[in-house]
Amino acid sequence: MKKTFVLDELDCANCGLKMEDAIRKINGVQNVSISFMTQKLMLEAADDQFERVLSEAVKACKRVEPDCRIVH
């Protein structure tokens, strides 16, 4: 499954890269991309693991940028 989410309050491109690296390390992530310019996160994972991966991705993003929210 591949979905795109809006990132609310992503303040800098460097934070976006750190988030992308953290999400990439989550078990089950097939592909991830964060665009600072469009403020979007594209996440791809197996259908049966997607909700767990998304939950862990939200936590990883909060560790890097506490004010940033993944809108889904």
Structure description:
By secondary structure, the protein is an alpha+beta fold. It has one domain (2-71): Alpha-Beta Plaits (2-Layer Sandwich), CATH 3.30.70. The chain is 38% helix and 32% strand. The protein contains two helices and four strands; from the N terminus they run E-H-E-E-H-E. A four-stranded antiparallel beta sheet has the order 2-3-1-4. Strand 2 and strand 3 (40-45) form a beta hairpin. The radius of gyration is 11 Å and the shape is globular. The mean pLDDT is 96.
Describe the structure concisely:
With 72 residues, this protein is α+β, with helices and mostly antiparallel strands.
Radius of gyration: 11 Å
> Based on helices, strands and strand pairing, what is the structural class?
alpha+beta
Helix content: 25-40%
Overall form: globular
Mean pLDDT: 96
Strand order of the largest sheet: 2-3-1-4
Count all strands and give the number: 4
Oligomer: single chain
Features:
about 70 residues, alpha+beta, Alpha-Beta Plaits
Describe the SSE topology:
Elements (H helix, E strand, L loop, with lengths): L1 E7 L4 H12 L4 E7 L4 E6 L4 H15 L4 E3 L1
Antiparallel strand pairs: 1-3, 1-4, 2-3
